[in-house]
Amino acid sequence: MTTPNLVLLQGAQAGDGGMMSMLIMMAVLFAIVYFFMIRPQNKKQKEIQKFRDALRAGDEVVTIGGIQGTIKRIDDETNTIVLNVATGVEIRFDKSAIIPKGTSNNR
């Protein structure tokens, strides 16, 4: 056998075990990404949804734009909330635009 053929043959034999270790490394990497990034984000989304479902008229809230106000009405059919932001000033928002008070600085 010539030297280039021998080198190719050795590379092919070493590559057999390399595929399994690469798959294991990819699985470990996916698990790390899942447990440190995806799972906490899903958990946070569930908490925010629970907060939005518990909203009632009279609650003080903050929008994702930073507008603070008191809930005047909630329309579950259109998924909107009417906020009283000042005397005689009412603004309609989508329910998903409401965040728990105190979280606007942490985003």
Number of helices: 1
Order of helices and strands: HEEEEE
Kindly give the count of domains. 2
Mean pLDDT: 84
Which runs of at least 5 residues are low in confidence (pLDDT < 50)? none
Give the helix proportion (percent range): 40-55%
> C-alpha Rg, in Å?
27 Å
Biggest sheet descriptor: 5 strands, antiparallel
* Oligomeric state of the chains in view: single chain
The number of distinct β-strands equals: 5
Q: What structural class do helix, strand and pairing data support?
A: alpha+beta
Mass-distribution shape: rod-shaped
Q: What portion of residues belong to β-strands?
A: 25-35%
- Taking strands numbered 1, 2, ... along the chain, how are they ordered across the largest sheet? 4-3-2-1-5
Distance between the termini: 65 Å
Quick synopsis:
The protein is α+β, with helices and mostly antiparallel strands and 107 residues long. The chain has one helix at 3-53; strands at 60-63, 68-75, 80-86, 89-94, 98-99. Strand 2 and strand 3 (80-86) form a beta hairpin.
